[in-house]
Amino acid sequence: MKARKTTERLLVLATLAAFVAPASYAQVFATESGRAEFTSSVPLHSFTGTSDRLVGRIDLATDSVDFYLDLETLDTGIGKRDKDMRKTLDTARFPFAEFLGRLETPVNPAAAGAQRVRVRGTFTIHGVSRALVVDGTLTREGTGLRLEAAWELRLDEYDIEPPRLLIVKVDPVQKIAIRALLNPSPR
Amino acid sequence: MPRLLPALVLAVLLVAPASAQVERRRAVTGGPVEELFWAPTVISTASVTNLPRGNANFTILHSFGPVSGGIGQLWGLDGAANIRFGLDYGISDRVSVGIGRSRLDKVLDFRTKVNVLRQTTDGRVPLELAVKGDLGITTEENGFAFGDRISGLVSVLVARRVSDRVSLQVTPMWSHFNAVVPYFVGGERIVPEADHVAIGVAGRYVLSDRLAILAEFVPVVGSRTEGTKDNLALGLDIETGGHVFQLFVATSHWLTEQHAIARNTEDFFAGDFRLGFNVNRVFGVGK
């Protein structure tokens, strides 16, 4: 009877250890102040919108990647243009742009230098979700990881009508870039 | 084995947050209501809309001659009654300063607008309230001393975006001229009042993302210079992305409020109105 109890206790401890152990390596990195940037073009002119409120987390134990941005924090430098952008993106109904995915390439948080990474997941904006593969780099910086990634977004794929400036339409292809220092985070 | 169940549940609970989605939280809540009006002017009077910090607004305000001139004057289009070029700049999201020059009397004017209250999306502040001041200097050579060329306006703008489509504004205004000169009309000697008080009422109805209709009525209350009529204007806002165009019919040809309140002698309902347009071009400075 005593041996059985001991076995049970060991089993419980082993189970707990199996689940909890990865968390103790603190392989979760997160940010609430990453930079997101888009560049729009119209003939003879381009403009950039930026936000320093990118929120996200990378969990190296589960390979999960989760980022979102409150689109109303994007600033193009002209208040009226910001309002037009919010109308175009219908941020009252769809306030967030978000990406949920998984790392396809292994990452060693201890390695020096930039590591090329590929993530595959789902990007959602304007209420439309589409599969997306993004290439970027992760670079060790202090105890954290510096993330840099960029991709192109086609407005029509997300049911976004490119805004007009007089009779000129904004280029339907937007260049997106994100940069963030992700710090170790508890699970 | 049943005794193992709580431990296994505990283990699962410990692990679950690791794969859970990051909680989505709005970065800004209860912020100011946007676009009570698309432009800083309703038609000929100021709107509560102010310029964001670091933004400039170049404006061209233009009113033609009276429509009552008929085909001989191409319903007023042959006569450029008045035109004002102006530039305003947002020092902060609540404070702007501006300068402009009008053709009539060659009035150079300096103005500022301060948004004391911002209507908020969460209803915490139900109204937008701004204070505006305008100092005009008649630069046309008329033999007056500098001090006698000065005019001014102080107004308090109270507005609310009632719904996505409707905005309303009430604007008590005080207009002052440092010097007034008696004049004769039909042999009658008119002594102008130096001060006028008016209560402007204005509204906007949004038709679409690009179009809105505007109305503005500025009745003078209390004593007024004999013959002074109340201003009425109706307009159409056209939002094009980079510009806001305003097409309007209005009683007064004055484009500074102190003049429009005190010096308008034309009556909208007698057919004394004119066509006009405003062009607003907002651009960022430094980005």
- Specify Rg of chain A, calculated over alpha carbons: 21 Å
Rg of chain B to the nearest angstrom? 25 Å
Main beta sheet of chain A: 8 strands, antiparallel, barrel
How would you write the strand order of the largest sheet of chain A? 1-2-3-4-5-6-7-10
Q: What's the assembly state of these chains? A: heterodimer
The tally of beta strands of chain B, per DSSP, is: 15
Looking at the overall shape, the CATH architecture of chain A is: Beta Barrel
How far from one another are the termini of chain B? 67 Å
Could you state the CATH homologous superfamily of chain A? Answer: Lipid/polyisoprenoid-binding, YceI-like
Mean pLDDT of chain A: 87
CATH architecture of chain B: Beta Barrel
Tell me the number of structural domains of chain B: 1
Instruction: Report, as a whole number of angstroms, the end-to-end distance of chain A.
Output: 38 Å
| CATH level-3 fold name of chain A | Lipocalin
**What's the CATH class of chain B, please?**
Mainly Beta
Helix amount of chain B, in percent?
A: under 10%
As laid out across the biggest beta sheet of chain B, the strand order is 1-2-3-4-5-6-7-10-11-13-14-15
Order of helices and strands of chain B: HEEEEEEEEEEEEEEHE
| Uncertain stretches of chain B | 13-18
CATH fold node name of chain B = Porin
What gross morphology of chain A would you assign?
A: elongated
